[in-house]
Amino acid sequence: MGAPLLRVEDLRAYFHTADGVVRAVDGVSFSLEPGETLGIVGESGCGKTVACLSILRLLDPPGRIEPGSRIMLRDRELTAASEEEMRSVRGNEISMIFQEPMTSLNPVWTIGDQIAETLRRHRRARPAEARRRAAEMLRLMGIGFPEQRLDEYPHQFSGGMRQRAMLAMALACDPSVLIADEPTTALDVTIQAEILDLLAGLQERLGMGLVFVSHDLGVIAQIADRVIVMYAGQVVESGTADEIFRRPRHPYSEGLLRATPRVGRKMQQLSVIPGSVASPKLWPSGCRFHPRCPYAWDRCREELPVLRGEARAVRCWLEEEPARRTGGWDGAALAEDR
C-alpha cells in the first residue's frame, strides 16, 4: 500500500484566550487511504469539528495550529502552505460539508451561483460551462428539474435538498478528500438514509477518501471502514468499525455503545455516562476520562495514559492491568450484549 491520501500527525489546535489556553485538540493523529471512510465519534466538546477545521486551516483567531503539528495531503504539508495555496486546496482537493446547511449557504445567492462559484474559482470555468456543470451536480444528487432549481434560493429548498445542494457544491471539483461534519444530524431518518446511500455511491464512483464526523454510532456503523473515538481533545481508541463496535476496549467507547438503543433489546432505560466533558481550559489530571470512568483507580487520576498500538490503538491503563476491568457499566450487562 502506498502513502496515505491524508495524514494528520500530533495535531494540536489551541485557542489562546484572555482566560487561558483552550486545548481543543491535543495531539490527534490519524490517516486516510483513497476510497476509505474514516468515522470520528465522540460527544460534543471532544474536538471533532475543530480537528476537521484545522485540516483546512479554517480556525479563526484566537485559535491556531501549534508548532509540531503536521497535516499531509499526499506529499504536501498543509501546515506550511501559504494562504493562497490553501485557497486552491479548499473546495478543490479537500471539501467539507457542515451539519446545518442553512447557515452554510448564502441566503442572498441562488443555489446555482453558489455551486458555479466553486467551478469558476478552481476550474476557471466560463459562466455557461459552470452553470451546465452545476445542473449536472444537482441531477447527480437526485434533485429533480435541476435547471429550474439553479435559480432558486436556499429558503426555497427543504432541509434534505439543501444538504444535497451542499454536497453538489462540495463535490463539483471532484475532491480527493471529503470531510462531512455531522451532515445528517438535522435530517429525518428517511432523508438521512438517502444522503448516506448517496455518499456511498459517490465515493465508490469517485474513489475519494471520506472523513465522516458524527455522534450517531448507528450512522458510523453503517458507513465507516475505520473509526477513531475522541474524548477531551484526544484519540482514546481506534480500529476497524467491526473491532470498535464488537469489542470496544476503552471505557468511553463501552459507555457510548451502552447508551445506544438497539433493536430487539428491551430495557427499562438507556444507560448513561455520568457527568459531562470537562472544560478544555482545564482538562483533568491523569486520564481525562477518569472522573466519569467506572473502572478508574489512583493511577488513572495521576498518570496520563499514552495511545498504545497502531491500527488497533487504545489509551487506557486497563490495557496493562486488565484484571481491574470488573463491574463497569451496569456490571456484566456489556459482556452479555457481546
Percentage of residues in strands: 15-25%
For this structure, the quaternary state is single chain
Query: What's the total count of β strands?
Result: 12
Terminal-residue CA separation = 33 Å
State the share of residues found in helices, binned by percent.
Answer: 25-40%
Overall 3D form:
globular
Would you tell me the structural class of the helices and strands?
alpha/beta
Task: Please give a handful of descriptors for the protein shown.
single chain; 338 residues; alpha/beta; seven-stranded mixed sheet; five-stranded antiparallel sheet; 13 helices
Plain-language structure description:
The protein is of the alpha/beta class and 338 residues long. Among the domains are: 104-174, no CATH class; 247-337, no CATH class. It has 13 helices and 12 strands. It has helices at 48-55, 83-89, 101-104, 111-123, 127-140, 146-149, 159-171, 189-206, 217-223, 241-246, 251-258, 298-302, 333-337; strands at 6-17, 20-32, 37-41, 63-65, 70-73, 76-77, 94-97, 177-181, 209-213, 226-231, 234-240, 313-314. The strands form 2 sheets. The protein has a 7-stranded mixed beta sheet with strand order 7-8-9-3-10-11-12, with helices on both faces. Strands 1, 2, 4, 5 and 6 form a 5-stranded antiparallel beta sheet that branches. The protein starts with 5 loop residues before the first strand and ends with a helix. The model is unreliable at 331-338 (pLDDT under 50).
